[in-house]
Amino acid sequence: MMDTQRLILFFVFTFSTFMLVDAWQRDQKPPAIVSQAVSKKGDAGGIPVPTAPTAPSAGTGVPGVPAGPQAGPGNGAPAGIVAGGQVIKVETDVLRAEINSIGGDIRRLELKHHKGTLDKTRNFVLFQSTSDNTYIAQSGLIGQGLPNHHTKYTVASREYTLADGAQTTEVRLEAPDVNGIKVAQVYKFTRGSYVIDVSYDIANGSDTTLQSHGYFQLVRDRKPPDGDSAMLPTFTGAAVYTKGEKFQKVTWDDIDKGKMPYGKTSQDEGWVAIIQHYFLSAFLPKDKMPREFYTKKTTGDLYTAGVVVTGSAIPAGKTATIGTSLYAGPQDTKTLEKLAPGLDLVVDFGILTVIAVPLFMVLTWIQSWVGNWGIAIILLTVILKAVFFPLQQASYKAMAKMKLIAPKMQQLKERYGDDRQRLQKAMMELYQKEKVNPMAGCLPIIVQMPVFIALYWVILAAVELRHAPFYGWITDLSAIDPWYILPVLMGASMIIQTKLNPEPPDPVQAKVMKIMPIAFSVFFFFFPAGLVLYWLVNNVLSIAQQWHINRMLESGIHKPGATKD
């Protein structure tokens, strides 16, 4: 009976753990609110432009970001309204970008090496400005007469393509001269890279010293990305990294409430990002540049996450450049950890990151040898099974012994009926006589559960497994099995495992154990195929191990030192 209770607790614990992790993730990602892009006559595609920062705050080393809007020079439209602009198209070997001449915003960014979530015939689009989805990158300078994201720029060409053999291509947008100050916004795209350098060349033709301050911000609605599932919730929101507070997520609700769980200022380190499942965009200021981070809600249902950087003072008649880097692409751990401290932390491996990271490293190493993520998952399962073999051996041996004495336990139940106290005493005497510890398998289960959960997050979060094929009908290990074959096989394997274990003497418990495999199969219908594959292989290996142990005990064959029952 106690062994049956242990098994039930194991399944309940497994189910509860997934539910707790699911609830934790939901807490990090508020309910979706469909954005409503404001479209007005004469605007550029109906994109509502968020509030622009104004002049630096007095008394601070880094300028603040007040709420008041400010129209840019040369822009006759009222603040917050975008007049029509030209679309500047840029193409490299890895991305296609569209920049608008109003404000110099990047309003569309297509990743050529990543397919769409719902439509795999099209490339994945990270930035876009449509009637129901807004996600753009914009920037500007702070100060009277300096260009911001309302400024109307001029540009030499409307199409830029990275030439064969060339490593970079630049887009230069010229702002109107104001008070003798000439400013050009420059985008630099690099071959094979998702890093875009964003800078401002400033020529101070005035008769006074000019202090340079630039703001760089990401603007997004809170609509979840395509393919987001209630069964597989992932975080979508802002994130800030500082030297003191390290990596901090900022939910949309945090922004609504004005909460800032991050350090507001930093003198030499830190970045701001908006992250979603598999992808992110982040402004990465250069080292040793004073910076101030901010998050706020702007027009309609749009949210802004940005950073203000302080450049050098520019004497009259001199020139200077102020800028930063924008990463907009996949959450590739190896790439991110090289770009900025803590940037790889955006890859969300859940609450068991300390276990998930080594598992991912081993999985990646295996994949580099076999060339297939599905095979890598199978081999990783075998490795983990070997690592936990001694613990599992004790667990399965205890269950096998319990199965052998199940008839005697049933006789005790029939003898003592409803006298629970005498029944428990008789059962304890039976356990001592047969040298059976019904709780021997608890520790192995508890030890292994963190590994199971960590691997769940590895398969869910790693962009390397996104659209990774296995064989046959499994064309994407990160998505659910389209034919539900793996979940059905996993359910069948659980039924076989149940048959190998002792049947509970209590009828209610027996029914629960019979229903459990079906319930878990349905639950796994919504899990990534890669995780179901892992669980299926683990079950098959467990069945083989349990069958072998049962056969040994039933035939009276024991290892040296074991006691014959």
Q: Explain this structure to me?
A:
Mean pLDDT is 81; it is low at 1-9, 19-81 and 557-565. It contains twelve helices and 19 strands. A hairpin with a 6-residue loop joins strand 8 and strand 9 (181-190). It has two domains: 2-24 and 356-554, no CATH class; 31-57 and 83-348, Beta-galactosidase, Chain A, domain 5, CATH 2.70.98.90. The two termini are 19 Å apart. Strands 7-1-2-3-4-5-11-18-17-14 form a ten-stranded mixed beta sheet. Strands 6-8-9-10-19-16-15-12-13 form a nine-stranded antiparallel beta sheet. With 565 residues, it is α+β, with helices and mostly antiparallel strands. Helix content is 34%, strand content 24%.
List the helices and strands and how they pair.
Blueprint lengths: L1 H27 L58 E5 L3 E6 L5 E10 L7 E7 L4 E8 L12 E2 L3 E3 L6 E7 L6 E10 L4 E10 L5 E12 L15 E6 L3 E5 L1 H5 L8 E2 L3 E7 L2 E6 L6 E7 L4 E13 L4 E12 L2 H7 L13 H18 L2 H15 L1 H16 L1 H11 L3 H15 L7 H20 L23 H16 L6 H18 L4 H26 L11
Parallel strand pairs: 1-7
Antiparallel strand pairs: 1-2, 2-3, 3-4, 4-5, 5-11, 6-8, 8-9, 9-10, 10-19, 11-18, 12-13, 12-15, 14-17, 15-16, 16-19, 17-18
